[in-house]
Amino acid sequence: MAYTTLLLERSPDGIAVATINRPDKLNALNGAVIADLAQLAADVAGDPETRALILTGAGEKAFVAGADIGELAAVDGDAGRDLATRGQAAFRALERLEKPVIAAVNGFALGGGCELAMACHVRLASPNAKFGQPEVKLGLIPGYGGTVRLPRLVGRGRATELLLSARMVGAEEAERIGLVNRVVEAGTLLDEARALAATMLGMGPLAIALCLRTIDAALDASLDDGLAIEATAFGTACASDDKAEGTAAFLEKRAPVFHGR
Ligand code: COA
Questions:
Q1: Could you tell me if the CB of 55 is within 6 A of ligand 1?
Q2: Annotated active-site residue in 95, 115, 175, 192
Q3: Residue 65 C-alpha to ligand 1 middle, in angstroms?
Q4: Does 130 lie in the same domain as 220?
Q5: What is the CA radius of gyration of the chain?
Q6: What tens digit of pLDDT does each residue of 143-190 get?
Q7: Is residue 109 part of a domain?
Q8: Distance (Å) from CA 24 to ligand 1 centroid
Q9: Of 190, 225, 209, 187, whose CA–CA distance to 259 is shortest?
């Protein structure tokens, strides 16, 4: 759990805040950050005390201003494919966590930063947030899932325009096109992210995990396969103590006490 580029703060309510901490480089993703993010995903998965994760960037200016261009400059074809594969695996591990992962986007989210935010389950943004995939300006394409997740979030036409023009999108437009869930008032980003995480943590923990698992598995399935995946997960939920408790609590007009099983 020793990170060189992340600050991790855990609170007793089960919410952990991971801050990418290279503010002098606008939190650009070098190999060390990618390794730390992979480790973070494994640590959160294996830590029952951590029930939700918020990801943000150090400083007021940037969430993450992209992959580290200094590192990219020295990368050849084979190394480039390896780099992309490593970054994709780290982001996918975060995306596959069965605990809510919220991106608190506090400034520039460019290139790998936009890709990292997109791999989170939910995105909140401060009014100064700016999103974009400027890789083509550098003669590159996104390597950490940008061409794959952006069309899924905003639609193929909008994604293609953004990917080919390198145009930056402000927070309001990002909300309008579905790239972020919500823009929050200046100065409230982490409080809003914590409040959202706390709301989720008030629900049945097994249900939260099953929802996340089903969304992930069903999104890329056919409609019929997706429905079958949902039915199986619904059956699992119906067999759980949490469902017995949740429905009983409703009928008895009291607050439920969930145990996550
Ligand atoms: N990789 C490496 N270093 C980066 C970086 C990146 N993606 N983005 C910013 N930095 C560094 C700058 O080189 C600078 O370092 P220095 O002070 O040692 O010279 C520092 O962060 C501050 O950035 P700077 O460019 O001076 O800030 P700015 O306010 O003038 O511009 C941006 C902000 C985000 C518009 C600009 O930094 C930028 O365009 N970054 C690259 C974005 C990008 O193309 N990302 C995709 C990479 S594939």
A1: no
A2: 115
A3: 6
A4: no
A5: 19
A6: 999 999 999 999 999 999 999 999 999 999 999 999 999 999 999 999
A7: yes
A8: 9
A9: 209
Please tell me the distance from the alpha carbon of residue 30 to that of residue 33, in angstroms, as a whole number. 5
Q: What is the pLDDT of residues 50-72, one digit of tens each?
A: 999 999 999 999 999 999 999 99
Any domain includes 1 = no
Judge whether 60 counts as a catalytic residue: no
Tell me the residue range of the domain where 114 lies.
Answer: 6-201
Q: Are residues 234 and 159 in the same domain?
A: no
Same domain (yes/no): 165, 103 = yes
Residue type, 77: G
Residues 53 and 150 in one domain: yes
**Same domain (yes/no): 112, 237:** no
Centroid of ligand 1 to alpha carbon of 25 (angstroms)? 6
Total tally of structural domains belonging to the chain? 2
CA dihedral of residues 231, 232, 238, 243 (deg, nearest 10): -90
Nearest atom in ligand 1 to 142's CA: 48
| Side-chain-facing half-sphere of 237: CA atoms under 13 Å | 21
- Look at ligand 1, atom 8, and give the residue with the nearest C-alpha: 65
State pTM to two decimals.
0.97
Looking at the fold, whether 179 and 245 belong to one and the same domain comes out as no
CA dihedral 50, 51, 52, 53 (to 10 degrees): 20
* CB of 65 closer than 6 angstroms to any ligand 1 atom: yes
